[in-house]
Please model this.
Amino acid sequence: MKLNHILFFSFLSVLFNQVLTLNILGVFPYEGKSHFFVFAPYLKELARRGHNLTVVSYFPLEKPMENYHDISLSKDVKILEDAFPIKRSYWTIIQISFFLINSGTENCKTLLDDENVQNLWKSKQKFDLVVTEQFNSDCALGLAHALGAPVVGLTSCVIMPWHYETFGIQYNPAHVPILFLEGGTKPTLYQRIERTILHLYFVYLHKLTCRKENDKTLAKYFKDIPPVDELAQNVNMLLSYSHNSITGPGLLPPNVKEVGGYHVAKPKELPKDLKKFIDEAEHGVIYISFGSMLRATSTPKDKLEAIIGAISELPQRIVWKWEEKNLPGNPKNVFISNWLPQNDILAHPKVLAFYSHCGMLGTTEAIYHGVPMIGMPIFGDQPGNAGAIEESGLGVQIDIRHLTKELLLEKFKIVLNPEFRRKVKDLSRVWHDRPQSAMDSAIYWTEYTARTANYSFGTPAAKLPIYIFRSWDIIAVLGTICLAILISLKLVITFLYKKLSQKPKIKTN
Ligand SMILES: *[C@@H]1O[C@H](CO)[C@@H](O)[C@H](O)[C@H]1NC(C)=O
Ligand SMILES: *[C@@H]1O[C@H](CO)[C@@H](O)[C@H](O)[C@H]1NC(C)=O
Model:
């Protein structure tokens, strides 16, 4: 009996392994460090669970790992650390949009020009699945097509504007935030107009430049390749690095899953000096980090003075990620370092608040550990995230253009209130309450995609012509009918009126 059981289970596990061990190709042609930082734990976890990974990226592993094979693109490309202009204006948005389409065009060329990448299709290596970032360029989908593999798309932030149409998700400015702009889920009329224009700008700029260029590049390497537009519509599954509690609830088709949170690792012990500084903080600690957004060289002097002025008046100790040795005025309660273990700091029970630029990673770590935030967004998805945390109750937001010492102290007072913190702990509990952890869910949908590769779970909306998708033809038909009825009615009424108003005249005659 027992032996039977053992035999049965070993048979099952053999079967299981056979079914589940996948040969996976990861393609990450964008060189942004904060993006790959999200994907790395997921890729390693896939390898740890026995899948065979080949990963094309700018970030080869530092320590080799079983089942994980790198193809590095990082020969002579400078890694991007998100050092962008901090000024918030329409001009900055236009500059960044051009940066995105140019890098999307270049990344495609670099990817397909690489000899090791070319060997993948020349050697006819077989892959069960391609996982790839869906950000500024969908060029990797051409490679997946050539290899005949199903695709799981990944994002490291909210879904990009051009992917709304691709996945058949109707972008609705009435309640869906957009990159670069504020307004949360309750925008004003002005903000809705702003969103509509920016959305159309992004979608058409991307379609007419990046995608066109990617089509040309792909055509050089692959015969009879469908346009990127079409390849993108056929992506089997998109794992969006978001969660409705921090990006607002959206309407998503069955092949788009929210898996935000899988990058957060189990907290580790803090370095000795930092641990002592936090442990001994009588009134708790505030953690400040703007990633690499605000630097000593790029932060306006009056803004820096406002922040230092505010924190000097607080009884809490401050841990601040800052790349210089000192802060102007040398406030006593501050621990500065240019590198800090953010996740381990936020996990410490003495950390009471997080003052941040509201990047997706930091915001996710804050909700994970239940730490109230002050969000001071700079660009990208940060304004949207900041709006969402204010609505969900995870924190409050402050506009860098209006930053003063008094305003900042006011915001600190709000988030340091114990009642506010209690609600954030509740919110964190809700965030964690899912049928599966974010990582398990990401892995599940990845394996599911390989198992169900012959089926499509996308909405048919993705493939409809825009006039049908938006019901313009229906509006045109019904509008024409209404107009015809109105015109006929008018003619009839005029006719009757003439007839009737003539009658009395006859009588009086
Ligand atoms: C695993 O991936 C490596 C690198 O692409 C490849 O050389 C190897 O043949 C793969 N192993 C299996 C079992 O497919
Ligand atoms: C998909 O269909 C093809 C052709 O019928 C078959 O060979 C393949 O095994 C199927 N793939 C999966 C994942 O079921």
In short: The first helix runs from residue 2 to 20.
